[in-house]
Amino acid sequence: MWLPAGLIVLAFISLYPIIYAVINSLKTEPQSTVNPFWFTNWPLQWSNFLIAFETIWHAFFTSAIITSVSVVGIIALASLSGYAFARIPFPAKNVLFMIIFGLLLVPGFLTLIPLFIEIKDFGLLDHDLGLILPYIAGGQAFAIFVFRSFFSGLPDEIFESAVMDGASDLTLYGRIVMPLSIPIMVTIAIINVVGIWGDYVLPSLVMNATGHRTLAVAIVSFEAPKFAPSLNVYNIELAAYLLASIPLLFLFSFLMKYFIQGMTSGSIKM
Amino acid sequence: MQPRGLTAALPETSARTVTHRRLVSGPNSSRRWVIGYLFILPTLVFVGVFSYYPAVKAMQGAFSNWNGFNPPVFVGLGNFVQMFQDPVFIASLWHVLIWTVVGIPLSLIPPFLVAEMIFHLGKARSQYVFRTMFIVPMVLPGFVGLLIWLFIYQPTGLLNQFLGAVGLGFLRHQWLADPHTALGALIGMGFPWIGAFQLLVLYAGLQAIPMEILDAAAVDGVGTWSRIRAIDIPMIRGQWKLLFILAIVSVPQNLIAPLILTDGGPGTATVTPVFYMYQTAIGYGLYGYGMAIAFLLFLVMMLLAIVNMKYIQSQPD
């Protein structure tokens, strides 16, 4: 009996920051000061969300484009490489794999400043590609590592008959490997969406023009009282935070099944 | 590889046909390695330009004096000598040491305990429900999670209001404004520290333990705690190894927390080496010095990761 009870308490505490944000995003500032823990005042302040949306919508769509293009790029490139490393023999394979895998040990902070300067030299500051291209590169190591380990685990028999029929590697990759890899693909996609959608440091350097920011940059610099007519600054900020979470919420609600399958398929270990 | 001259000597069309047929032919083709290289080529181009090139630049920069505009001037180990005479840098080393020593157990032990608790639930259905509940916090983007914790730590924020409401008002504190508590507040963010990723990986490991071993242990009357110690923990070594290395690599990288929440302050109370790198390079324009800090930290982390991999590999299977 104590197991489920303990888990419920722990889950509640883990979820409380979200609950807290939901409650207080629907209040006025004085109402939050009186009691931030629960709903006490009616009507709820839905207008907070409207004001928040007006302030961040441009950044929201900028981030949506950057994140989706980057993640599609990561999956496309990394699954091809993962297939090659898992199933095609070629010279210097292990060396090349270690070169890519070694990037897992190269921390983001080491390359942050030279990368920023490189993006600037390419003339990509304040341009979506200034983030998309580095994100595609940055996602390769982990994704290839997981794809390779998953593709190696696929039974040989499923390939054999197709090879008899003269299937090429591109056919094997597109017709056999990809359809069998949807859970692991979704898992890698989600991990990358979460990382890119929530990234702040690189965008704060690369996309800092007032008119064209990513969501993270826009929300962190949200504190400036641009929307002075309303007094509920703090509550509107919370509303903006929740709006920023909606894409991930959708993603998880539709793809949770695949995500758990992928994470628990045993490919994610060393 | 075919010499270029030979291909050129052949009539144009036939050369192309031959190449084409070989490229799309089946996995037993003698030229299959070409396909292998073509498949990994895009990856190599991307990581070459956007990962390896900046990494090389970072290492060059570490040994130079550079303001980001003029050509870098080679200064040998000058930056590193300067670093160890820099009290802010020395302080930042202490902060990251504390953060790592406290932060790694915090990122591994709570998810493991929860994974065990979920694993011990009888019904598959309730296992699924709880797993899902602990994954839900992942919908908060990283920066949003930080900003909500900023609210929680405010003088009139959730934590102080909670302390007041349960009669512990005397503990109320300016968590982020007091140099004695600011670093602890940053490390403690995310309470109760049940990371969804770690939880799922560890849980998957537990599920993969062969049923016969668990049954045999049950028959022998092995208690829960001894079973966890003697069977569960060693059986999921692959998962521990991955998570431990990821933690060693990620905990000291935490730049965004001091950047958004405290700006390294109050004073230098929450300056970490990575934050200091950012501050010296972006804030003060000392790119070479910043890169030297990053390089040193990178070497230390590599060393830790290698020691960890070696140590775990040498364990008998």
Quick recap of the structure?
The complex is a heterodimer of chains A (270) and B (317). Helices cover 73% and strands 0% of the residues of chain A.
Helix content of chain A: over 70%
What is the alpha-carbon Rg of chain A in Å? 23 Å
Mean pLDDT of chain B: 85
Instruction: Strand order, main sheet of chain B: write it out.
Output: 1-2
- Shape category of chain B: globular
> What composes the largest sheet of chain B?
2 strands, antiparallel
Just give the CATH class of the largest domain in chain B: Mainly Alpha
Mean pLDDT of chain A: 88
- Determine the CATH topology of the largest domain in chain B: MetI-like fold
What topology emerges from the helices and strands here?
The complex is a heterodimer of chains A (270) and B (317).
Chain A (H helix, E strand, L loop, with lengths): L1 H24 L3 H6 L12 H41 L5 H9 L6 H14 L7 H24 L4 H8 L4 H12 L1 H16 L3 H6 L8 H6 L12 H31 L7
Chain B lengths: L3 H6 L2 H13 L7 H31 L1 E2 L7 E2 L3 H6 L3 H33 L4 H12 L6 H12 L4 H8 L16 H7 L7 H12 L3 H9 L4 H12 L1 H14 L5 H7 L10 H11 L3 H27 L4
Antiparallel strand pairs in B: 1-2
Helix pairs in contact in B: 3-16, 5-9, 5-10, 5-13, 7-14, 10-13, 13-16, 15-16
